[in-house]
Fold each of these.
Amino acid sequence: MLSQLGDDAKLLAGGQSLIPLMKLRFANPAHLVDLNFISGTSYIKDDNDTVRFGALTRHAEIEASVAARKIPILHDCATGIADVQVRNRGTIGGSLAEADPSGDWATVLFTLTAEVRCLGTAGERTVSLTDFIKDAYTTALAHDELVSEVVVKIPPKGSGGTYLAFKRSAPVYPTASAAVQLTMDGDVCQDAAIALGCVGLTAIRARDAEAALKGQKLTEKTIARAVEASRAVADPQSDMRGSADYKRTLVGALVKRGIEIAVRRARGEQVEVGHIYA
Amino acid sequence: MSDSIENISIQLKVNGKSHSRTVEPRKLLVELLREDLDLTGTHVGCDTTYCGACTVLMNGAAVKSCTIFAVQADGAEILTVEGLEKDGELHPIQKAFGDCYGLQCGYCTPGLMLSALQLLSRNTQPTDKEMRKAIAGNTCRCTGYQNILKAIQTAAQNMKGA
């Protein structure tokens, strides 16, 4: 159908971004193809080492899922996206396919090993999330392709993570956000993944910050180094949510707090986390 | 590209009553409710998915009816503020909003009551935090929310016996 309708066609998933964008005339598709009536596109399948989300799985369904209890960073994300009403409609596949620089899912999934299955007339292919997100509002999807599934690798034992987003109110996008996933062996950090949201054209993987933690005992000093490296790699724009300087400072603070929570969770502690409001 | 966009026939249940309508695909659910079905209790506030004034329940889930096309509600069950009272009796949530002064101008109230209903139908004893989270998508510019929270808590207590 997409190949028949051409470039002016848009897919409608949860519609919680696309419909407002159309009302504001930022999006003006000639054709809308509603995916909501296709059955079998909303599911959460928990295999031994991966969790697979159907593209039209709603944020609210992820929030309430067993998978999200097992992988707390997914729960942190799903439970804080916008508000109840938006979470009841919005979907993980739609969020990734829209690739809004302020979207929550890409930031979180950058810290886990995640793949996106893309389905088109030419068949199905699997793209790593890092390759899928090309730029702001730009993905690897061809115009006759759609997201069919999101596959997330379950983190190993001894791994803990968290997603912290700082918002002015529930329905708005965060001012900045940070996702941290750490695998610990005692006090030593075996593996680290840190991603920053809303401070660049896409979510940003803070590789230098990860390197500052990997193989190290997590002391005040090593954490400070990771925070500094996170601030350095952030590339925020000044806008109505805050100045670039403010966002850079904020994202550093979120990474610091995120590391502390991730360590506690890696030790098996239950830490309840929600999005933070100004 | 097609020359014209055809209207689409839909069937839905609103407040327990079945309706069949033929609508333009671009028509929003809130427009169908207000303009075609004369159910003007559902309000349009921001029209940009922020304020929650247009909140209704769709198959039991709170949704912003300004951010769903009417054709997407084909086959769905919708509950609006008009469907809350039964046999001339106010719903416990409506009564509690009145008793606790959970409103001033009243514009946001229908949406808030339906968000409260989703919460209380899934959680009969919500904590303060759970109540705040449940209404985070409903903006009120009069009350400061304190009396709204009191109203939801009062409704929860009154609904327990029911």
Amino acid sequence: MSAVGHEVHAHDEHGHDAHDHHHKQTFIEKYIFSLDHKMIAKQYLLTGTLMGIIGIIMSLLFRMQIAWPEESFTIFKVLLGDKFAPDGVMKNDIYLALVTIHGTIMVFFVLTAGLSGTFSNLLIPLQIGARDMASGFMNMVSYWLFFLSSIIMVCSLFVEAGPASAGWTIYPPLSALPQAIPGSGTGMTLWLVAMAIFIASSLMGSLNYVVTVINLRTKGMSMTRLPLTIWALFITAVIGILSFPVLLSAALLLIMDRSFGTSFFLSDIFIAGDVLHYQGGSPVLFEHLFWFLGHPEVYIVILPAMGLVSEIMTSNSRKPIFGYRAMIASILAIAFLSTIVWGHHMFISGMNPFLGSVFTFTTLLIAIPSAVKAFNWITTLWRGNLQMNPAMLFSIGFVSTFITGGLTGIILGDSTLDINVHDTYFVIAHFHLVMGISALYGMFAGIYHWYPKMYGRMLNKNLGYIHFWVTAVCAYGVFFPMHFIGMAGLPRRYYTNSAFPLFDELADVNVIITLFAIVGAAFQLVFLWNFFYSMFKGKRAVQNPWRSNTLEWTTPVEHIHGNWPGEIPEVYRWPYDYSKPGHDDDFVPQTVPMKDGEEELHH
Amino acid sequence: MTSLLVIAVLVLLGIAIWQLTKIFHLTQIGAATYNENSEVATDRDNSVNGYLMFGFLGFIYVFTIYALIEWGHFALGTPASAHGPQYDSLMATSMWLIFITQTITQFLLHYFAFKYRGKKGKVAFYYADNDKLEFIWTIIPVIVLAGLILYGLYAWTNIMFIDEEAKEDAIYVEVYAKQFSWEVRYAGKDGKLGKANVRYIEGVNTMGVDMGDANAQDDIPAGELHLPKGKQIIFKFRSQDVLHSAYMPHFRAQMNVVPGMVTQFGFVPTVTTDDMRQDAAIMKKVANINEIRSKKSAELVAKGESPLEPYTFDYLLLCNKICGASHYNMQMKIVVEDEATFNKWLSEKKTLAATVKESKEKPAAPAEGEAAPAAKPADSAAVKTDSTMVAQVIKK
């Protein structure tokens, strides 16, 4: 197969290439085992969306249990069955399983694979001017491994004793001992297998992205002319390569502890009336390994969203991004710092308190590049000519939730303050706003913006507006009140709060949160309808509907393998010449040569 | 199995619909022409959404104020430990900072979104860079965060590192976690906790204390955590099975409990349970909770169920690390009292050595508590491997 990136041309002069370009692709070649990065991007998006639907339905189920503890619901009986919801009352171990799988699916399958997988695949070749990824084959394998791991993860839901239920962080010994919780039997084994495959998929994808960005940029596309999306996706891939292998090692060691009787993470355990043989291991070691990935992971989730938002915001503001170099520098700074802050998840894990001081220091440092980014986005809006397309609304929403969620990081990142809010709802509020909702907004923004590129049709904007405004209100409605119940000391992952009279006064707030969650989730159906309906019935897109500068809008609407029918375009300027004085239009695509005497004012 | 089948059917149905629409798609290729009405925002859209953005700013402000008024009293109230006030003041400082920043930045963001909403013919200001501005908003967070970091580290060091002097006079208490309950063990007269390991668990010795250790002889087990006011308490945490977290919110104290290792946290309780029950904020909170509970009780009675008991304030130890199915109900009452009452309470408790001796004298009698079924003679080979099973060694 001559599937090597830029060698694959659809209709061009390299006719002598061994590959037959005019061979009609079969259905399987085109839609299933496709080597084309645009098709793979769509595959990622669809798989991610389906997993997202599962993840969100799960969150609704456990939110209903929290709001109306131990009440009977038909939906529980239907979805969970008699064993896990006898008479429609959710049982406590399935509650933990739902929480666990919700976290796993949303973090890894939706926000890592669904977001970065989709847009890295779609945008990297298109925006840097490449025919395809460096290795189309590896790219395909990467997707299919992701698909396989999704299937295994979904299958684990049907295991008799229930799926993994030790929390998405799967801390041993709980995750290692089936005696401790039923979900740590076959369910946990499948979880670990699924994640191991997922990591392999992610690594293949990331290596491909990095190589492609470094090697396959078109003529004139220097690193400082790259759109910020590419910078973000590129650095995301680098962090992924550095940190995912550590999770793989943690998973492998845990598999050994579980199946082969080693003691990496276990020691001195007495459970179900027996002393187990484990000796000398440490659960804290697992926490270190897990969070060495786990923390960079949240930036793997949020950086692509930041990149998409930067691009969409400039294009819709008809104004250059403010502080292009500072934006790149802050991406680099965030990426670097993200690998040395993992200990802030472990302030009270029993590790040496001195380490806590170090991690407090590095953690609060990360607020600096984040603040720079937030201010630069706000300044980008200033004196713009804002085109309020749905993608733009989601981008503004992103900045709003990123600020709201990010600010509480100042509290959680401070080892002292973490003592009393650690593992409470305060944490849930923080990370859902700053990386959950924000990253989802980034993903939605990306979908609304690049839908015409993916499907050649437009999404309905009015449905988009409804989708955004209801989601925006509900997202705050769900997560803002959680700060307050967290400050009241309410721990997360409690099946019901009724065991503590102290928490009785929080019950009403939990009902409000759940109602917001249900309404918010229901309005995602508007999006799903819009997404699937427009795929076939949407208005046909023009080549450059948002009048943007980047290269993907110079390709024809109809997808072709190789992206550009003729030569790959050459790039003469950075991607952010919007409303530049001296030009007729309010946008100057990267392919337009500099005029005589035109200055490169910026970067 | 049925649900798997249902899902399979749904997937196949989805594929069928997709194929159908694909056919539909093929019938209408080539209709694309540029027209103004093509799902791109118009001036009207810009205007409507611009106003909505401004409205959303209002929503954020109003919601915040509403939450502060309605839910602000949820906060835990007067701290009951010596380091508590410092914790609370650091929290207050950070909160003020957050609220100010949040108010300003959200205003700028949404106001700009409203003010600069697009109009046809308007041209945006080409403004790509300003080193001075960027320097300003780099240096401001740097200064503010430097202050916060220093303040935080100072407080952290105060809390986590206990003075040698305070240690001399401290009371050592072991807090022992298991699915899904807590136990405590006081060091007794010698002020030293005896060594322990899960391999010593046998009968009434549910915490696996090494009864051969001289320091263990006067150790006193208890099912309720009593603490004397004003004394330095040093907790030693052990778990017998999985990770737990000992969370004592009113004392601003928390530490994970890790099997195979001993973790530590210390504080000085400063408010007795009785005094805290007289605290204005706590009294208001209790009254509020009891109002809710009596309403609920009335409903329960109407349904023929037994009513809820009225709530009286008590300090709590909660498990705050997912530890299994009943994680949500792993709790223990904490009682803070003056030193004399505490000493009296402790002196009435039997030492572990006495309890063990007693249970050995009448082996036929059912051992008390939940320990009975767990009684399995510890593996003698394991007991001999002494090197790793030192739960706590106090070196003076």
